[in-house]
Amino acid sequence: MALLQISEPGQTPAPHSRKRAVGIDLGTTNSLVATVRGALAETLPGADGQHLLPSVVRYTDSGVEVGQAALAAAGQDPLNTLSSIKRLMGRGVVDAEAERLPYDIVPGEGLVRFQTRSGAKTPVEVSAEILRALVQRARASLGGDIDGVVITVPAYFDDAQRQATKDAARLADLNVLRLLNEPTAAALAYGLDRSATGDIVVFDLGGGTFDVSILRLSKGVFEVLSTGGDTALGGDDFDRAIADWVLAASGQAVGDAMRQRGLMTMARAAKEALTDAAETAVSLGDWRGQLTRARFDAIADPLIDRCIKACKRALRDAKLKPAAIQEVVMVGGSTRVPRVRERVADVFGREPLIDIDPDRVVAIGAALQADVLIGNKSGDDMLLLDVIPLSLGLETMGGLTEKVIPRNTTIPVTVAQEFTTYQDGQVAMAIHVVQGERELVDDCRSLARFELRGIPPMVAGAARIRVTFQVDADGLLSVTAREQTQGVEASVQVKPSYGLSDEAIAGMLRDSFACAGEDKQLRSLREKQVEAQGLLQTLANALQADGERLLTEEEQRELLAAMEALHKAVAGNDLQAISAHIEALGQASETFANRRMDDSIRSALAGRHIDQLQSEEH
Amino acid sequence: MQPTDFQQDYFSLFQFERSFDVDTDELTARYRRLQQRTHPDRYRGAGERERRLAVQYSALVNEAYETLGSPVRRAQYLLRLAGVDASFENTSFNDPAFLMEQMMLREQLAELKQSAAPEQDLDALAERLAGVTTAQLDAFRRHYSAGDYAAATKSVAKLQFLDKLSQDMAHMEGDILDY
């Protein structure tokens, strides 16, 4: 029996050519880019043949260097060579000072900036350089422009950090399909979305950070149940522990910085050797010794204990017992340490998954998801549901936090809260949004301050201002406000605490276009034309499918007229006119869009037997 | 056919009868199917407005799922749909036996720290709390289906007490088991 083909709402049923989509692991130490070729996802090497691109950016007299070249120059040009910048995404000057990075920090409020020979640079701009280098690599490898990217972020990244990541992508002129949580990407790489229902643990022990996440998979739906970890625990600590043991065993002192570096390099080499060997030789000055696997295990155990504790805490947050875990995915170079694998296997009572290179597994998963979102895999119904990692709250009287959206709430989420005025005739109100679990505002992360203006003057306590907080699928917050008693829309002015305003980004974009010698006007026009054509195509398909069923003849006529008007505008070169007609068509089609969505919701539950028939057919 | 249709009744969104008894497996199954249709990831190729609409619908589906999935929130929601003022902070109930039981449970919780076998004691306490909660849920179901919303409101207030206790117990569990 031939089945009717019904396209997913919002997607064009027309056959499309394969698009170029990549997944990007924008890491603290190293970054990678991957894509799907044939049926397999693979990371892409640079011109030097290396897949890992060191996340290091150097501003030189002639331009910008990214990666190995920048890393090699770090010693001789420290102030212009920026690394580990991921730790400062969406962060302020105080945070940067706490990280004790050897850079020239520009004093001031808001997002931290570093003074370089090319001027003051924010972490967003530095990250944009890394993204550009990765996309350049992908373009060369795939032979054309990249249509869309998925960028991974740690599951615990707060709104400011996610926003900063997305801003970096905007600066690099990328079409971001989705910000994807790193553990989710790792699980996708192993194809766990296609296996049966189950709860999985992603254990990510990198160079300087440890993250654990518990995910629930069911019929293509991914939920992050909980996350935990330690931002100051990683492979470097194992090296340090070995170095400390060598110092104690040899009875020698650390000595100067040079000797210290040598000691750390040796410790690292010893650690790596012990992945396969039962023992390895170590030395310091004229002292010679042997480090056995058993000794290293004992040295590493206190550090691994911290990982295990975080795992147990994450399990408790997810309300699960270790035995309930179906799979454990290992991510990060430090999971190569045999003792780590052993202890993890012990806790969860099963061998962890280690088949995919733990350095590349996140990028590979991101590439798979990019391929789905760009539409290369039609009929794939994988859906990722994420949660917000930290509670969103508001500052109330006395510097206390009131939670508006608790952590681990599934996103997207919309929560409305009502406020009232404090004084007679009050026409404005300031709201401070924070993120974190602590009671005091000062112990939480300041995200943004909003000013509501245009409140109609009334006696104190009479106004009813409904503020709506919305967190989208990428975990990004937006706020709208409305005065209820008189129905007045209050305007919201966003001042991100540690981010860039839209104007600042627009300015940076202008600068970068100026550098590239591109005609901004022409470029904007072309982009608008493409957007308009996409909109027209989507609507035409929707009308064909549901127009007669969901709209009256009158409504259909109006919609067609608005489409015709946009169609005419697109043929011309008037940017303003095209924008205006896009907006007008958007309004004209709103009712249709709502009805299609309602209809889709009804049929989602009513059409169950059809789904079953289809799955039997496959 | 406005989106507000669904906002006004989560039960109709999930195509369930308005009732305290919800098949949670079926709820989850329907939730997933609804998210497949509404999630913004499904609208990557669509225009800006349609994507925004998807965010709104998807958020509504999440909110409805959370509400119907938790017995206490479901009970509160049913009362709200029935037009009962849901300001439970002001609900007083004169039930010395319930309060006494609460105090005993709280005392047991406080004593856990000195317990020789905290894990077993914790499990025992959790079981007891679950029993009291079930009894209270049954009471709500009875009152609600009989249309006695005043009594049902008191049951919900008690359920909130128990919910708070259960949260405190979860915190305590973390302290005692040290992870």
Structural description of this entry:
The complex is a heterodimer of chains A (618) and B (179). Chain A has 618 residues and is of the alpha+beta class. Chain A contains 16 helices and 28 strands. Residues 1-16 and 609-618 of chain A have low confidence and may be disordered. Chain B has helices at 4-8, 10-13, 24-38, 48-69, 71-81, 96-111, 118-145, 149-177. Chain B has 179 residues and is an all-alpha fold. Chain B is built from 8 helices and no strands. Chains A and B meet through helix 8, strand 18, strand 22, helix 12 and helix 15 of A and helix 3, helix 4 and helix 8 of B.
What is this structure, in a nutshell?
Chain A is of the alpha+beta class.
Summarize the topology.
The complex is a heterodimer of chains A (618) and B (179).
Chain A: E1 21-25, E2 30-37, E3 40-43, E4 53-54, E5 56-59, E6 64-66, H1 68-73, E7 81-83, H2 93-99, E8 114-116, E9 119-121, H3 123-142, E10 148-153, H4 159-171, E11 176-181, H5 182-189, E12 198-205, E13 210-218, E14 221-230, H6 235-250, H7 257-273, E15 279-284, E16 287-292, H8 293-317, E17 325-331, H9 338-348, H10 361-373, E18 383-384, E19 386-387, E20 392-396, E21 400-405, E22 410-411, E23 413-419, E24 428-435, E25 445-453, E26 465-471, E27 477-483, E28 488-496, H11 502-516, H12 520-550, H13 553-571, H14 575-588, H15 590-606, H16 608-617
Parallel strand pairs in A: 1-10, 10-11, 12-17, 14-18
Antiparallel strand pairs in A: 1-2, 2-3, 2-4, 5-6, 5-7, 8-9, 12-13, 13-14, 15-16, 19-22, 20-21, 20-24, 23-26, 24-25, 25-28, 26-27, 27-28
Helix pairs in contact in A: 3-4, 5-10, 6-7, 6-8, 8-9, 12-13, 12-14, 13-14
Chain B: H1 4-8, H2 10-13, H3 24-38, H4 48-69, H5 71-81, H6 96-111, H7 118-145, H8 149-177
Helix pairs in contact in B: 3-4, 4-5, 5-7, 5-8, 6-8, 7-8
**What does the overall shape of chain A look like?**
globular
Report the major sheet of chain A: 8 strands, antiparallel
Give the radius of gyration of chain A.
27 Å
Q: Total number of helical segments of chain A?
A: 16
